[in-house]
Design brief:
Layout (H helix, E strand, L loop, with lengths): L1 H18 L1 H22 L1 H7 L23 H10 L2 H12 L10 H11 L1 H6 L53 H9 L9 H6 L7 E6 L2 E6 L4 H11 L3 H10 L2
Antiparallel strand pairs: 1-2
Length: 253
């Protein structure tokens, strides 16, 4: 089976070549001129006419002295050519006349290299200060200033004006005078019974008998059937008008 497959594969190129006349023509031309090209290379006179500028003895031939030979004076001839060339002389003179560049031994590109060279063994054996993670603690202080006005107290006043509907109302009240009050008026001719309903309202008198002792801006009320002296003594002890009550007691002695 393998032998049959090889035979079939070998037939394909033969069939393709037989079917292409152009391929056959090119192949025949190449085979017919193969020996002619090799013979031309072996004959220098034939190559001279075929390659422009070709010569069997070029002037540079003298520079090659073989594997162990010298340069045939190439270096000296090059120096001689430099002396007579303006461009070459400009390059040579610039190297002599231009200022010498100053190289700082502490320049970063030098110090970094020297440090790397000095610590090269430490990098290999693991003893050098390699990069490692560190915790950075940083504190930032910021000051803020603000302006504040002094405290101020402001007041305003408004005048109220009464308005609306007003009316006058008359109220009638009945008060009963006891016999003791009339007896008091009989004993002292300077004393009397004065019936004034406004005084009852002013001093909030709702029951009788009641004794009212007044003084500037204040008053005391004693309610109940008490003798006059005893009522005044109670006011003199703890009343707002105690001084007035004591004066009345002194005057009655």
């Amino acid at each position: 089976m393998k032998k049959l497959l090889s035979t079939v594969l070998m037939l394909f190129p033969l069939l393709a070549g037989a079917a292409d006349p152009a391929f056959e023509a090119g192949a025949s031309f190449g085979k017919g001129n193969a020996s002619a090209g090799t013979g031309a290379l072996k004959n220098p006179d034939t190559v001279t006419g075929a390659i422009p500028g070709y010569t069997a003895n070029p002037p540079e031939k003298g520079y090659y002295g073989g594997v162990d030979g010298g340069d045939g004076g190439l270096a000296n001839k090059g120096q001689a050519a430099l002396q007579g060339n303006d461009a070459a002389q400009s390059v040579i003179n610039s190297g002599k006349t231009n200022p010498t560049p100053a190289i700082d031994p502490n320049a970063p590109f030098i110090t970094i290299g020297k440090n790397a060279e000095a610590g090269a063994d430490g990098v290999l054996n693991g003893t050098a200060n390699q990069c490692k993670e560190v915790t950075v603690s940083k504190t930032t202080f910021e000051n803020y200033t603000c302006d504040k006005d002094v405290a101020s107290v402001e007041a305003c006043s408004r005048t109220a004006t009464p308005g609306g509907h007003t009316s006058t109302t008359t109220v009638q009240k009945t008060f009963t005078l006891t016999a003791a009050m009339f007896e008091l008026s009989k004993e002292d001719k300077d004393a009397g019974v004065q019936i004034d309903p406004t005084l009852f309202t002013q001093y909030n008198i709702t029951t009788v008998p009641a004794l009212v002792v007044t003084c500037p801006g204040r008053y005391d009320v004693i309610r109940g059937s008490l003798p006059l002296q005893q009522a005044l003594e109670k006011v003199a002890e703890s009343g707002d008008c105690a001084a007035t009550a004591r004066h009345l007691l002194e005057a009655g002695k």
